[in-house]
Amino acid sequence: MEIQWDEKLSLGIEPLDDDHRQLLAIVNDMLKIDPPNDIKAPTLKVLERLHEYAASHFQREEALLERHGYPELPQHRQIHADLIRQLQKIQTDLQNAIKITMTVPLVMETHKLLRNWLFGHIAQEDHKYAAFLKGRA
Ligand SMILES: [Fe+2]
C-alpha cells in the first residue's frame, strides 16, 4: 500500500524535504511490487535506485549538518552507514535467492525496513537535527 507524504515527515528544511519526498517515491515504487508476480528482478532494480539515491542524500544531509556543527553528527552518520549496510545485505541476499520461498520473505523484510526507515529515521532522528537547526536560526 502506498505511503502518503505527511507532516510527520516534514522537517521544514526545503532541500532535505525534497530529498525525502524523492525517497518516499522510490519506496512507493518498491511497495507496488507484490507477489505473486515476478518480484525478484523488479525489487533488485528499485533497490539499486534506492541505494544510489540514499547514498547521495545522506552525503547532502551530512554536509549540511557538518556546516552547522550538529553535535550528534557522528551518531547520525553511523545510523546512515547502518542503513546502507542493511540495504547492501538485502541486495546480496536477494541476488542469491534462487527460490520464490526465499525471495518473498526477503521482499517483505525490505518493505518493513523501508517503512521503519521513513517513520523511524526521518520522522524521529532527522527531526532531532531539524530542531537543532531551527534553534540556531
Ligand atoms: Fe538522516
Description:
With 137 residues, the protein is mainly α. It has one domain: Up-down Bundle (Four Helix Bundle (Hemerythrin (Met), subunit A)). The protein contains 4 helices and no strands. The protein has helices at 14-31, 40-67, 73-96, 100-136. The longest helix is centred in the last third of the chain and has 37 residues, at 100-136. The structure holds fe (ii) ion (FE2). Fe (ii) ion (FE2) binds at residues 61, 76, 80, 121, 125-126. The site of fe (ii) ion has 6 residues, from helix 3 and helix 4.
Structural class comes to mainly alpha
Q: From the coordinates shown, what is the CATH architecture? A: Up-down Bundle
- The third-level CATH topology is Four Helix Bundle (Hemerythrin (Met), subunit A)
Strand proportion: under 5%
Number of separate structural domains = 1
Q: Which molecules are bound besides the chains?
A: fe (ii) ion
Which superfamily, in CATH terms, is the homologous superfamily? Hemerythrin-like
Number of helices: 4
The radius of gyration over CA amounts to: 16 Å
Order of helices and strands: HHHH
Q: How many strands, which pairing sense, and closed or not: the largest β-sheet?
A: none
